[in-house]
Amino acid sequence: AQSVAQPEDQVNVAEGNPLTVKCTYSVSGNPYLFWYVQYPNRGLQFLLKYITGDNLVKGSYGFEAEFNKSQTSFHLKKPSALVSDSALYFCAVSRPVTGTASKLTFGTGTRLQVTL
Amino acid sequence: DAGVIQSPRHEVTEMGQEVTLRCKPISGHDYLFWYRQTMMRGLELLIYFNNNVPIDDSGMPEDRFSAKMPNASFSTLKIQPSEPRDSAVYFCASSFNRYEQFFGPGTRLTVL
Q: Which of A32, A43, A103 has the CB atom closest to B91's CB atom?
């Protein structure tokens, strides 16, 4: 079985400050890791993914995430937060299965609130 | 591209009625997913299709739920009979590879 934990229901940060949204995972074998963002009354939007290679992954809107295999973590980061980054962020994990889609398991989500 | 299209955006119905949710995936995407989102259970995968064939329906709650994909550009999720505990936002997503899924805007279902 695969699972994702997002330990913080909400993260508050001031605009211009760095932000981190935490994610840890559990999966057998090598993980595929993802971050999605959900704005109010919208579907989820893909931000970035880690499949293999460099542990630091860069994605949309200036976000990046660092894969840490020893800590089974994939924290989302941004050097300077914007008010417009306020949204619900989901971490997801899957594992490679030949010939089929990666079945994603999502975390419970972390609400990011960026204030002026 | 218009993205994944879902209809209706909102549905209010009474317990016992049949509900049909519709999805048009992005053209060229081989995979289609149905998810349900609630405050209590978060985001749950209900079923997914590959090339119009259901691959994994282990997340479908019970026999009241059924999903079809008669062609590459259309899928339905049906609930019959509906119950208040089915109230949720239902998302359809499609994918052209095994990694990135593109979500529709969702259908907010309220069963009274």
A: A43
